Amino acid sequence: MQYENEGSQFYKLYEGLDNDQRAEKNEDGTLRFPEGSYEKQRRLAACCGEDADFSQEDQIKQAIEQFGAYLQLERDHYYPTGLALRGEIRGLMLGYFEAALLEKARVKELTNERVAKAAVTFLDVVVFNEKFAIRDLFHGLVQAVQVEVIGLREYADLFVRRFLQSRSYFLVPLNAHAFSLDAKFASNPDKGFSVEEEVRRWWREGRY
């Protein structure tokens, strides 16, 4: 599976999102959007292109906070309509992921909107443009494990800081590890291994 390069960018919350008249607040304070009734670009803004200069720690911390909030927002938006993993697909993934993670994970196939790549993970929701592919699902679940093991705050911190260092989505260690594990899976889908153990090992060794 070939992944689209998004021009070395990660995304932050669109400025003024809370004032979007099409957004409604849930009782817990999260935002809810009518599906398909808004343009995706309203919620996304390129944050760190080639000309960005995050030389101040306060700017970096602000980007980290925005990125974490963005992931949580998208998760809250897509999770209620996502589908649980069942049948043969869940059985295959059990060879790599803990049952508890697979039980809470959701898959969402879009119809009237699109995400930036073929598949994007928002915490424990893997969102696909149209129908999903098994390898993309695996990749997304690896990222879900990373968030679960590391925690959202630390995940956002590592992602943003490593991106600012490398200026490449693919060179961010969190992503690089997910790509290497999905390649390992694709080379021999019948030979299972523990993704959580792999993630914890990289975390202990400071490789993220």
Word description of this protein:
Strand 7 (119-122) and strand 8 (125-129) form a beta hairpin. The protein is built from 7 helices and 8 strands. It has one domain (11-204). Helix 1 (57-78) crosses helix 5 (152-166) and helix 4 packs across helix 5. The chain is an alpha+beta fold. Helices cover 44% and strands 12% of the residues. The strands form 3 sheets. Strands 5-6-8-7 form a 4-stranded mixed sheet. Strands 1-4 form a two-stranded antiparallel ribbon. The chain has a two-stranded antiparallel sheet with strand order 2-3.
Short description:
This protein has helices at residues 57-78, 87-93, 99-104, 134-150, 152-166, 173-187, 195-204; strands at residues 11-13, 24-25, 31-32, 44-46, 83-84, 106-110, 119-122, 125-129.
Low-confidence stretches: 1-23, 33-52
Globular, elongated, flat, extended or rod-shaped: what is the shape? Answer: globular
Count of runs of 4 or more consecutive helical residues: 7
- How do the SSEs run, as a string of H and E? EEEEHEHHEEEHHHH
Question: Helix content range of the residues, please?
Answer: 40-55%
How would a textbook summarize the main sheet?
Answer: 4 strands, mixed
What is the CA-CA span between the terminal residues? 24 Å
Strand order of the largest sheet: 5-6-8-7
Return the domain count: 1
Averaging pLDDT over every residue, what do you get?
78
The count of strands amounts to 8
Taking all Cα atoms into account, the compactness measure Rg is: 17 Å
Q: In percent, how much strand structure appears in the residues? A: 5-15%
The helix-and-strand class reads alpha+beta
